[in-house]
Each structure stands twice: as C-alpha cells, then as structure tokens.
Amino acid sequence: MVQPSRRSALVGLAALGVAVTAGGAAHARAPRGTGAPRTTLHVVTGEDGFSAPSTAAAGAVAVRLRTTSTSTGAVGIARLRRGVSEAEFRNRLRRVFATDGQESIEAAKALMAAAELYGGGFTHVGTDTGYTVELDAGAYLLLEFLDFEGERGRDPAPGQEYVRRLTVRETRTDASPAPPCATVIAVDVPGRGPRFALRGRVHPGRPLRYVNRMPDQVNELALYPITDDAVTEKDIQAFFDNTAPAPPFDVSRQLGTPPLSSGRAITLTPPLAPGRYAAVTSVHDARPLSAHGQHRILTVG
C-alpha cells in the first residue's frame, strides 16, 4: 500500500469546509437526540461495486459500513435542496476537489447551496464501522466521497461515481435511545478559535456523539490511532503547523465522519480499541481548522 501524502491523507474532504456560508439553512435545525434505530442500512463499498438499501424509516437510521478497497471507505448522506438535480450535485462536488484557492472556495459555497450534508462514516479495509443519523421523511443520497477526489479514490468518469438514492418514509418508533458514552462538540471559542470540546468519557464498543456547532461552517471528525505514548497535543499542533516531518498518528486507520453541515449531529459507533486517538479535522479556511487548534487527544478505555 502506498503511504498517503500529507495532502491526500489529511486534506481529502477538507475542501468542503472553506468559507462556506451560502445557502446553509435550507434544511438546518438544532441537533436533537437520536432514538433507537428502526432501520439499519448495510452498505458495502469497493472496486467491485457499491451495495446499499434504497429505503428507510424516518427517525434514527443506523448505517453499518464496510469497504473492500483502499480506494473507497468515506460514505456519507446528503439531501439536495429544492430545485437541484443529482447531476448538478455531482458536478458541484467534483468541482470542489478539482480546484484550489479562491476557485475552490467558490466551488464549496456552490456545493453548500445545493445540498445539506448529514455526515457519515470513515472506514478502512479489515474493519466495519457504524453511525446513526436522524432523518426526516424525504429523498436523500448515499455517496462515496472518495469517488469525487480523483486519484485518491477510484477516479471514475463523471456520472459514474457511487451515488445511490435513499427514500425515507414517515414511519417512526418511540423506542428509547442507547445513550452515547461521550459527546465531541466542534465549537468556536471566543478569543481562542475552533476547538473540540469533550463531554463524558469514550469507551470501546459504545456510541460516540458528534455535534457541529461551528457557525456557518461544515466540519468533520477524523479519528486516528496514536501508537506512540510520548505523543502530545503539541506534536499534533506541530504537524498541522508544518514543522513536523510526519503525522504523529496512523493515517492508514481513519475512523470518524465526513463533514456535517452547521447545526447537525450524528451518533457514531466506530470500532475504537482501548488506547489514544487523535481527533482532528482537515476542513479549513485559509489553513486547516486543526492548525488553529481544533484537535484533541481522546483516551478510549
């Protein structure tokens, strides 16, 4: 396996976050609690195809995600805004990853004006991951983000990316939710900048809640195992400041969620083992938000 470069491993979906303010409120609402899932969607993505159900019941929808290829494994959910076609959404998403600088900023604004992002899951070969998201009745898309990132993914021809329609029907359950053991919250702290706040303690095999409270800013949560006990927050900061030669965490074992729109929340069930993980984001303005201090070491145990 080719060792990912700093850009390919950590920038990836970051282009979605640059200066996004346009059209972000069409479906936005304050995060609400996630009930016990009535529907579980089993999604398999890989070089040989993309398998996903086409319907779900409204309310808490669980997704179990598996990848069979190193070129896939970043599956998310999006909802098109009124009047936007699937073809237009594909073109706008592809353009985000095909441009740089100010052109990329404008492309990201155009994408956010076209769709609301509900997050999803990162996984890698040899492990399954899961997440639960609250969905109202309506039409959604399940998509493989890496298909839109050129050579980092499968690099299919335009229009051949893995995108599947998901119809959510108005059938709800009153079952009580399984409470998360901890909540990671993306916040913008006055005078300090973007940060990850943590409530509770992270335990193996327990749900982990992620809430994006960054105003007018999409954001992701990427979790990477830290294998060196000597690594500190300063080492992570040095990496994002470009003063460290290599990431102080294992970029080949990414877990977490692709970007969520502002005000959204998702419940993750990643296969976290006891130990330490770097919680980071590659979403950026002029620099990655983690370069501004939005990173945190999570201890799982």
Description:
The structure is a single chain. This protein has helices at residues 6-10, 86-98, 101-114, 233-240, and strands spanning 39-46, 49-51, 55-57, 59-67, 74-80, 115-122, 128-135, 138-144, 163-169, 182-189, 193-200, 208-212, 219-226, 255-260, 265-268, 275-280, 296-300. With 301 residues, the chain is mainly β. The strands form two sheets. Strands 3-9-8-5-6-14-13-16-17 form a nine-stranded mixed β-sheet. An eight-stranded mixed β-sheet has the order 2-1-4-7-15-12-10-11, with no helix packed on it. Helix 2 runs antiparallel to helix 3 (101-114). The longest helix has 14 residues, at 101-114. The radius of gyration is 18 Å and the shape is globular. The relative contact order is 0.20. Mean pLDDT is 86; it is low at 1-11 and 18-30.
Descriptors:
single chain, 301 residues, 9-stranded mixed β-sheet, 13% helix, globular, signal
- Sequence of strands across the biggest β-sheet: 3-9-8-5-6-14-13-16-17
Query: What is the share of helical residues?
Result: 10-25%
Uncertain spans: 1-11, 18-30
Tally the beta strands: 17
Order of helices and strands: HEEEEEHHEEEEEEEEHEEEE
C-alpha end-to-end distance:
30 Å
Structural class: mainly beta
Radius of gyration: 18 Å
Shape: globular
At a glance:
The chain has 301 residues and is mainly beta.
List the helices and strands and how they pair.
Blueprint lengths: L5 H5 L28 E8 L2 E3 L3 E3 L1 E9 L6 E7 L5 H13 L2 H14 E8 L5 E8 L2 E7 L18 E7 L12 E8 L3 E8 L7 E5 L6 E8 L6 H8 L14 E6 L4 E4 L6 E6 L15 E5 L1
Parallel strand pairs: 1-4, 3-9, 10-12
Antiparallel strand pairs: 1-2, 4-7, 5-6, 5-8, 6-14, 7-15, 8-9, 10-11, 12-15, 13-14, 13-16, 16-17
Helix pairs in contact: 2-3
